[in-house]
């Protein structure tokens, strides 16, 4: 609720300024003989979830191909988190039938109050039994991954519940096989390292010592409990493939279906124009025409004023008040903006609205805009989300979406943050994890 109120105050204040800054009034442009009156609807279809980030780790550090991590090797992954978030992960103990290393259902807390947690957190990791296959002596069983004839072999476990391993066999201590370390990289960004610290003599079998590899696994950042399994209950999230065969494909599919970032969208601007790019130019630095304020702080007033004075632009519209609302505000999941405009055959539509959980990202069509009429001269209607892209304004260095301290919901004031080393406007490509565009925004055109 605190974050929602902060966004509301920031973007509502900026949007009020946008109303005053745009000289285009709210009446549709005067239609000509061939003009059509359109309504553009911008709907926020994002949905928050207990899991804010999910991913797979499968390639040991220094390797170029996916595979197990043998003694001396490690998996690493980077993620963003806010105070109150926890980390969970799971990786198979390969010399077993269905055992895996993971924290408990509550995960590992990533902050102590507002202070990021760092260092060795292995004490919070346990060896779990997935309850999907009958256990055999570790390092010896013919139905264990290194010795089985194929995936998913071996008789079913009579006890199907996920639980800490307790089968009468002797296993190495957790910290004799795996060491888990957290490093805070700044700006609420973390790196987790899962290192295989076993040696050739860690697991002794009747036939001698064997290595204890770790297999590819999954991780998730979450606020709720039990994102990967529920202790005392049968597997319900696809854990079996990971725990028996080191295959995380089923459980990551389940995780991704339960992972989401609720992304507010800020007031923005549309422009009806000819062939030339008007709102921005890909591969070029923003010349200071107002894109920065829109992309960083949700303030479309400067860009609207610039466009209003440019030749070749027949209409400029600021959208800032959600349908059903009485005053300017961002749109949250389930909300929508609507804006009416008129256009002639040959016209294109430019669009820009801020991805609020970012430093300077915005949704828009390609620089040349969206063609509003087809080759036959008929107006384009329906869902046009497929033409919407997530753009980087190149004005501020990016931070992990939703957690960056210089992003609108967290920053102390507008226009804060470090300048981007690449000042070109471009499609976002910074290595961070973003939701698919159509999981955040839906854009449709209809005729009036």
Tell me about this structure.
It is a single chain. The chain is mainly beta and 448 residues long. The protein contains five helices and 26 strands. The strands form six sheets. Strands 2, 4, 5, 6, 10, 11 and 16 form a seven-stranded antiparallel β-sheet that branches. Strands 17, 18, 20, 21, 22, 24 and 25 form a seven-stranded antiparallel β-sheet that branches. Strands 19-1-26-23 form a four-stranded antiparallel β-sheet, with no helix packed on it. A hairpin with a 2-residue loop joins strand 14 and strand 15. The protein is elongated, with a radius of gyration of 26 Å. The two termini are 37 Å apart.
Major sheet = 7 strands, antiparallel
Rg for CA atoms? 26 Å
Strand content: 25-35%
Number of helices: 5
Q: Rough shape?
A: elongated
Poorly predicted runs are 1-9, 11-33
Helix and strand content put the structural class at: mainly beta
Amount of helix: 10-25%
- The average pLDDT value, as a whole number, equals 91
Total strand segments: 26
Instruction: Tell me the span between the first and last alpha carbons.
Output: 37 Å
């Amino acid at each position: 609720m605190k974050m929602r109120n902060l966004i509301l105050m920031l973007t509502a204040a900026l949007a009020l300024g946008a109303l005053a800054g745009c000289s285009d009034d709210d009446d549709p442009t005067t239609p000509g003989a061939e003009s059509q009156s359109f309504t553009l609807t911008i709907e926020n279809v994002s949905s928050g979830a207990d899991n804010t980030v999910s991913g797979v780790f499968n390639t040991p550090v220094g390797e170029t191909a996916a595979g197990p991590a043998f003694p001396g090797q490690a998996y690493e992954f980077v993620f963003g988190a806010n105070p109150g978030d926890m980390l969970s992960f799971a990786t198979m103990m390969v010399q077993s039938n269905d055992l895996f290393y993971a924290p408990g259902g509550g995960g590992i807390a990533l902050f102590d109050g507002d202070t990021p947690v760092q260092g060795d957190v292995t004490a919070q990791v346990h060896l779990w039994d997935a309850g999907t296959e009958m256990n055999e002596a570790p390092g010896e069983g013919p139905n264990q991954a290194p010795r089985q004839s194929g995936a998913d072999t071996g008789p079913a476990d009579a006890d199907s519940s996920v639980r800490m391993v307790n089968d009468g066999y002797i296993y190495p201590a957790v910290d004799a096989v795996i060491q888990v370390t957290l490093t805070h990289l700044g700006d609420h960004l973390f790196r987790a390292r899962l290192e295989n610290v076993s040696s050739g003599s860690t697991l002794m079998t009747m036939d001698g010592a064997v290595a204890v590899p770790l297999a590819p696994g999954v991780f998730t950042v979450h606020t709720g409990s039990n994102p990967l399994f529920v202790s005392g209950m049968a597997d319900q999230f696809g854990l079996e493939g990971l725990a028996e065969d080191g295959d995380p494909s089923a459980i990551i599919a389940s995780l991704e279906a339960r992972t989401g970032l609720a992304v507010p969208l800020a007031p923005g601007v549309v422009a009806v124009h000819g062939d030339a790019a008007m709102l921005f130019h890909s591969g070029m630095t923003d010349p200071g025409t107002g894109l920065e304020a829109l992309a960083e702080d949700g303030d479309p007033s400067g860009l609207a004023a610039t466009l209003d004075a440019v030749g070749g632009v027949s209409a400029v519209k600021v959208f800032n008040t959600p349908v059903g609302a009485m005053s300017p505000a961002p749109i949250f999941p389930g909300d929508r903006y609507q804006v009416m405009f008129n256009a002639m055959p040959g016209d294109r539509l430019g669009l820009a609205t801020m991805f609020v959980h970012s430093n300077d990202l915005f949704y828009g069509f390609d620089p040349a805009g969206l063609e509003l009429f087809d080759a036959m001269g008929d107006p384009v209607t329906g869902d046009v989300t497929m033409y919407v892209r997530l753009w980087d304004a190149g004005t501020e260095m990016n931070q992990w979406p939703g957690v960056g301290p210089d992003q609108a919901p967290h920053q102390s004031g507008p226009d804060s943050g470090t300048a981007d080393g690449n000042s070109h406007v471009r499609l976002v490509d910074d290595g961070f994890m973003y939701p698919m565009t159509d999981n955040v925004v839906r854009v449709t055109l209809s005729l009036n």
